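Input (structure):
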């Protein structure tokens, strides 16, 4: 009887004052966020947990609050869900609501996370009558295809008590078990070089580019055939991906993320010579009702052709490329732009934003040569002269300059200031938005200053634009 009275009192109290719990700490992307309905590898030694709340659940007040092993994980509204990774083991989950600004937990449930499997913690009963208000099961009863993903949309839980969260991302802290930490790193990598946090927050925001977008993010670090690695390329790609998800509001299903892309990947994405209509961008965009906006980010090596009629021509360097045979193993910048022009001409692609953190001088980010024991290439690379219509191209450097690394921040210098500018530092007018012009001015001011201070070298970003993209980025308070 006392329990019934307490619940009745809570039902009256909740509509009066409900608030979300304090924001979770921010970390750089590490483990890829799970996307419901898509087959995706679960990190070794971990399982996936989906927490959902029925749209028909009749509960007064705010969100369905979840605590696991003593730490708050998420707030889930009616008809919504969150997803997370958890180290395999047994956890104690508590559930309740937010009361007077603080989570108020009432019910508890023991859950077992199995490695490589997905479990479901579902609130699917109406009202506060009695009985099992929350159910843990291996297979779902709720229809997640009709439910909205909540933010924080993905978190990571470790049995040692270190729990971190961020919308659309997971970070494995250094205090986590070695098994979980190794799951973050790619082949041949150091774990801490693929999960370094930015020293500034990535704010929420909106962009005109998120309305009907296709975004491609590529980080090429681990090269073959004697080519030196791009030490922070995966950090760059992961952080840029998170900015697109959080600040630009890109749908995760519209963002294609590649770690260490080969030539076949690039041809499949962007199309080969005379084969743009078979590319993934073309095929996807052609199914849209209106022209799709395209965002392309690349961090890795670029290189110039060194001989013949293509001498000086710039190429993106796939991880399986041979720098000494770049004409046949690299992906030409001018082919990428030509294929985009074709898609624009066919009215399936609209606005386009391309950002490339690479140089085309034959040098690496620390000033060394791409290929060991080979003399300098001494080639002045040819850069594009203008951007396609309704497009912006941002390049890390000009001419024979190389694109510097920023070792202290564990990012490419260009990418670090690009992301910092997008986080609000480039907002010269102070109006809560970042325009292409403001971002261009910010990059051209700060990148050269730091390049000179870091390695006494010149690095001047290039920004080619064919008109301002209105509504490029609006940051939220």
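Output (sequence):
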């Amino acid at each position: 009887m006392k329990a019934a009275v307490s619940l009745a009192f809570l039902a009256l109290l909740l509509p009066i004052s409900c608030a979300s719990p304090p924001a979770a700490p921010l970390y750089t992307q590490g483990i890829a966020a799970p996307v419901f309905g898509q087959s995706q590898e679960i990190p070794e030694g971990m399982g996936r947990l989906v927490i959902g709340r029925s749209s028909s659940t009749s509960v007064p007040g705010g969100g369905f609050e979840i605590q696991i092993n003593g730490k708050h994980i998420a707030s889930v509204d009616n008809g919504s869900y969150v997803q997370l990774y958890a180290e395999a083991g047994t956890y104690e989950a508590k559930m309740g609501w937010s009361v007077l600004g603080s989570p108020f937990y009432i019910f508890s449930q023991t859950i077992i996370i199995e490695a490589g499997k997905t479990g479901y913690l579902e609130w699917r009963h109406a009202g506060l009558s009695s009985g099992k208000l929350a159910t843990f099961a291996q297979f779902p009863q709720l229809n997640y295809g009709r439910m909205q993903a909540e933010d924080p949309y993905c978190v990571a839980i470790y049995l040692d008590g270190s729990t971190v969260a961020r919308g659309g991302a997971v970070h494995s802290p250094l205090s986590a078990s070695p098994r979980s930490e190794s799951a973050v790193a790619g082949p041949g990598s150091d774990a801490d070089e693929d999960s370094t946090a930015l020293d500034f927050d990535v704010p929420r925001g909106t962009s005109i580019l998120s309305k009907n977008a296709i975004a491609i993010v590529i980080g090429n670090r681990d090269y073959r055939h004697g080519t030196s690695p791009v030490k922070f390329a995966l950090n760059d790609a992961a952080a840029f991906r998170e900015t697109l998800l959080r600040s630009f509001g890109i749908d995760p299903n519209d963002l294609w993320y590649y770690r260490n892309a080969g030539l076949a990947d690039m041809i499949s994405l962007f199309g080969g010579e005379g084969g743009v209509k078979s590319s993934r961008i073309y095929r996807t965009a052609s199914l849209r009702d209106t022209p799709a906006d395209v965002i392309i980010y690349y961090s890795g090596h670029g290189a110039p052709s060194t001989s013949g009629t293509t001498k000086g021509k710039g190429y993106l360097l796939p991880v399986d490329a041979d720098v000494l045979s770049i004409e046949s193993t690299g992906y030409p910048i001018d082919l990428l732009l030509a294929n985009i022009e074709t898609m624009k001409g066919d009215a399936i692609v609209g606005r386009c934003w391309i950002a490339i953190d690479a140089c085309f001088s034959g040098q690496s980010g620390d000033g060394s040569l791409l290929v060991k024991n080979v003399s300098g290439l001494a080639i002045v690379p040819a850069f594009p002269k203008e951007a396609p219509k309704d497009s912006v191209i941002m390049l890390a450097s000009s001419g024979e300059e190389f694109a510097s690394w920023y070792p202290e921040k564990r990012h490419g210098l260009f990418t670090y200031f690009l992301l910092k500018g997008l986080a609000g530092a480039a907002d010269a007018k102070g109006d809560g938005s970042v325009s292409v012009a403001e971002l261009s001015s910010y990059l051209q001011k700060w990148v050269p200053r730091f390049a000179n201070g870091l390695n006494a070298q010149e690095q001047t970003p290039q920004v080619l634009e064919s008109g301002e993209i209105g509504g490029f980025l609006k940051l939220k308070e």
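Notes: Residues 16-172 form a domain with the Immunoglobulin-like fold (CATH 2.60.40). The first helix runs from residue 2 to 13.
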